Amino acid sequence: MHCPFCRHADSRVVDSRTSDDGSSIRRRRQCPACQRRFTTIETASLSVVKRSGVTEPFSRDKIVTGVRKACQGRPVSEDDLAVLAQRVEETLRSTGSAELDAHEIGLAILGPLRELDEVAYLRFASVYQAFQSLDDFESAITALRAEHAHAADEAAPSDAAPASAGPAAAD
Question: Lower CB count within 10 Å: N or C terminus of the chain?
Fold first, then answer.
């Protein structure tokens, strides 16, 4: 690591700590030549391979920008978008792959977005699942309705609960 002050080719690590979210390491370094201290933040790189074949660094901001368009006019806050982008990044990093296809990232967004806002999910899915007709929208809506019905059935209390039998009174 080059010293940012005197450009000496080496430095000594004085202290290392993980960041708040655990995705990076903060290192405090000291230059042996000028004795000045500086901080570095190290993260594992994640690259995105675009359809054109171009590779670029992963960016949470691009996720937020893309999802923000799908959420336009919906009751979704900037904090909600930031949390969604963090969840997507954590999911992608957990795959262990250093390079991801841009389409994989779009698909990884769909689950958390469906939980956040179903209308925004349908808007976003229409692009990433390449909806071609109204039938594609209808089948996606039918799947969402079936999911709601299944969740409602699981949440409903069972009618077959046995009645509590108390002690019989003797006459």
Answer: C
pTM (two decimals): 0.64
Instruction: Look at residue 137 in the predicted model and tell me its pLDDT.
Output: 87
Per DSSP, the residues of 24-71 read EEEEEEE-TTT--EEEEEEE---EEE-TTS-EEE--HHHHHHHHHHHT
Beta strands 24-30 and 12-18, pairing class: antiparallel
Kindly give the pairing relationship between strand 47-49 and strand 99-101: parallel
Task: Identify the bridge partners of residue 12 per DSSP, sorted by sequence position.
Answer: 30
Q: Residue 93 and residue 44: Cα distance in Å, rounded?
A: 9
24: which strand partners?
Answer: 43
DSSP 101: E
Task: Report the 10 Å Cβ neighbour count for 100.
Answer: 17
Instruction: For 54-63, write each residue's pLDDT tens digit.
Output: 999 999 999 9
